[in-house]
Amino acid sequence: MFVEVARRIWGGSVVEGGEPPVLEAPRRRPKIGLALGAGVARGWAGIGVVRALKAAGIEPDVVSGTSMGAVVGGCMLAGKLDELEAFARDLTPRKVLSLIDIRFGGSGLVGGDRLGKLLGHHLGETAIETLEKPFVAVATELSTGHEIWLSRGGLVEALRASYALPGVFEPCRLGRRLLVDGALVNPVPVSVCQALGADLIIAANFAHDGHRHATVVQASHLHDLEADEPAGSPVERAGRRFVGRLFGSTPERPGITGVMMESFNIIQERIMRSRLAGDPPDVMIAPKLGSIGLVDFHRAAEAIEIGREAAERAVPEIAHMMSALAR
């Protein structure tokens, strides 16, 4: 009787001759956390990352997201990832423009009501606390700079606050707080998964473009400075120029939106490096998205595929770590 109970509880083996059972430590599946980072249009790659992990049988137990990463994570847990992917793949430059409600004299160039209504159509009145797994969307309080973790309340409102890019989208008011994009404080929210008790944290970094190194360039005279060649093929660069013109921006003469977006990207990358140095994930998935511009929302199919391939390359490392933690 004792032998059978030992086998069931401990998974051990019994030595012949009536010797005491050799007990093995029970295996426990590690608690997996998935931190989906910001990245504007490059954040579509998060859909590919999630798809690849699911196909490999890797299901996160807790999810955190910032900006576009919050949108992907929230829709995934709400069971609306298919709808989000269909919407993203169907985008064209003209459809992107149709979703932009320009406002003058407000707190941002874009009101965001059209995008908010679109999210509301699919997510309805879903509350974060009713999702199948713990989820946190990261935002920034505008007046204090506090990092705000949104883990309760309306999912749509939390996502809008998390992606409210300063100067582009109007800030979102939740209660007494005025919130903007969480990438200002925590672009890849690994620390949130740590706080939620994850044993193994997988981070997806969509801000990394594989080209920018943010080094120091010294010149004895201003005329000695030469611009680096833009990344990507001639066709890709032509595509970025076309989309840039739609937003009033070209490489030679960027508009106010282009300046804000690129400046925000530089700030985000610097903050991300600092945060990840202090809170490193166990596994980093960093798709090389340098060929996709920050506002190339119409290139979702490419971004998704790049994200999927990057996650597939990381699967063996994740599986090895899961096995080691289970022992």
From TrEMBL:
<feature type="short sequence motif" description="GXSXG">
    <location>
        <begin position="65"/>
        <end position="69"/>
    </location>
</feature>
<feature type="short sequence motif" description="DGA/G">
    <location>
        <begin position="181"/>
        <end position="183"/>
    </location>
</feature>
<keyword id="KW-0378">Hydrolase</keyword>
<keyword id="KW-0442">Lipid degradation</keyword>
<protein>
    <submittedName>
        <fullName>Patatin-like phospholipase family protein</fullName>
    </submittedName>
</protein>
<feature type="domain" description="PNPLA">
    <location>
        <begin position="34"/>
        <end position="194"/>
    </location>
</feature>
<keyword id="KW-0443">Lipid metabolism</keyword>
<dbReference type="GO" id="GO:0016042">
    <property type="term" value="P:lipid catabolic process"/>
</dbReference>
<dbReference type="Pfam" id="PF01734">
    <property type="entry name" value="Patatin"/>
</dbReference>
<dbReference type="InterPro" id="IPR016035">
    <property type="entry name" value="Acyl_Trfase/lysoPLipase"/>
</dbReference>
<dbReference type="InterPro" id="IPR002641">
    <property type="entry name" value="PNPLA_dom"/>
</dbReference>
<dbReference type="InterPro" id="IPR050301">
    <property type="entry name" value="NTE"/>
</dbReference>
<feature type="active site" description="Proton acceptor">
    <location>
        <position position="181"/>
    </location>
</feature>
<feature type="active site" description="Nucleophile">
    <location>
        <position position="67"/>
    </location>
</feature>
<dbReference type="GO" id="GO:0016787">
    <property type="term" value="F:hydrolase activity"/>
</dbReference>
